[in-house]
Amino acid sequence: QVQLVESGGGLVQAGGSLRLSCAASGRTFSSYAMGWFRQASGKEREFVAAISWSGDWRGGSTAYADSLKGRFTISRDNAKNTVYLQMNSLKPEDTAVYYCAAKPGGVRVAVSEYDYWGQGTQVTVSS
Description:
The chain is mainly β. The chain is about 0% helix and about 50% strand. The chain has no helices and 11 strands. Strands 2, 4, 5, 6, 9, 10 and 11 form a 7-stranded mixed β-sheet that branches. A 4-stranded antiparallel β-sheet has the order 1-3-8-7, with no helix packed on it. Strand 4 (about 30-40) and strand 5 form a beta hairpin. The chain starts with a strand and ends with a strand.
C-alpha cells in the first residue's frame, strides 16, 4: 500500500510558478513509478508527467505530456519519499486539480495504469 498526499497548490497569476509536492508513505516508495495528472472542471483526467522508480541519483527516466514540455519538470527524492512537479510560465488553461499517482514498474501515461492516488491539490491560474 502507498498513501499519497499532495501539497503546494494555490492561486497564481499567469506567467508565475508553483511547485507541487507529493509525500508518499508506505513501503518501497522507491520501487514505484510516480505520475502527475490533472483534471479541469468538466474534463477528463489527463497525464502531465511521470518519473521512473530509479534509485539512480540522476532521477531516472521521465515522460511529459507534449504540450507541457519545457514548462513543467518532474523530479523525485527517494530519501524523502517525495515527488515534485515544478510548473513555470503558468497559463489560465493550466487551472485544474492536480493529482499524484503511483504504480509499480515502469513509467506509463494512462490513468488506468496507476494503482494509488492522492486526494488532489487545486491550482488556479488567473489571467
